[in-house]
Each structure stands twice: as C-alpha cells, then as structure tokens.
Write a structure and sequence with these properties.
5 helices, 2 strands, elongated, ribosomal protein, ribonucleoprotein, Ribosomal_uS14, 28S ribosomal protein S14, mitochondrial
Length: 137
C-alpha cells in the first residue's frame, strides 16, 4: 500500500511521458557514436606507424649508418644490427602507406590532395575542388 502511493505520481500521463523523454534523451546523449579522424582501422594503423617512424627515425638512421659503414669494426656493426632488429617493424618508413583521406583506399592516391582517383574525380566533377576543371575540347 505504501509503495502504491509512491508510484502513483509517476503513473500520471504527463509526468510519465516527460520522464520517458528525458530518459531517452539521456540514452541518446550517452550512446552517440563518436566520429574519429580515421575512416577505419587501417587508417588508424597507418597513423600509428607514421608516429612511430617519426619518433624513431633519428635513432634508426644512426644505427643504419653504423651498420653499413665498412670502416668500423665488425663487432660494432653487429651490435648495431642487433639493435635495429630489436626495434619495432613499424618504425621502418617503408611500412607507411599513403591512403585516401575519405575512404582509406591504399591504391592510386593522388599525393597533393590525399584522395584516391575515384574520390578525386567525384569531388572534381561536383565542382567542390578549387582550381580543378574538367577537360573539354
């Protein structure tokens, strides 16, 4: 009987509807999918690789110079070889791949715009790219 008295105000149509709307609003705010800078996991992986290359570039170049120098003793060159092998593979600049900024497509990327040829053509045809005009003769 005591519980019925407490629940009754919430059973009123207006109060109940306002609680329902506020609860849905809170749920919507909590579960809005967050947009990130990356199109997919491949683009994120490439960004991590780029950061790793940037962080370890100087050390990697120094070790490679020591490793490839034929004037230095073999023991020192072998130590540099071991240290290069101990570094993460993703620290090598060869593993960085240019990707389309919109679709993350790895092939046929135009470096000046960071877009694949497909996206570049679609944007250029829609006249959204300044300085680019479709050829006509």
């Amino acid at each position: 009987m005591a519980l019925r008295g407490l629940i009754r105000p919430f059973c009123d149509g207006i109060v109940h509807r306002s609680l329902f709307l506020s609860r849905n609003l809170i749920l919507r705010v909590l579960f809005i999918p967050e947009r990130t800078r990356y199109t997919n996991w491949r683009m994120r992986r490439d960004a991590i690789r780029r950061q790793m290359v940037k962080d370890l570039a100087v050390e990697r170049i120094r070790l490679n110079c020591i490793r490839k120098n034929t004037v230095l003793p073999d023991e020192l060159r072998q130590i540099a070889d071991v240290e290069i092998a101990a570094q993460p593979r993703d620290s090598n600049y060869i593993r960085v791949r240019d990707r389309c900024a919109i679709t993350s497509r790895p092939r046929s990327v135009i470096p000046r715009w960071r877009l694949s040829r497909i996206q570049w053509r679609a944007i250029a045809d829609a006249c959204h790219m300044s300085g680019v005009k479709r050829a006509s003769w």
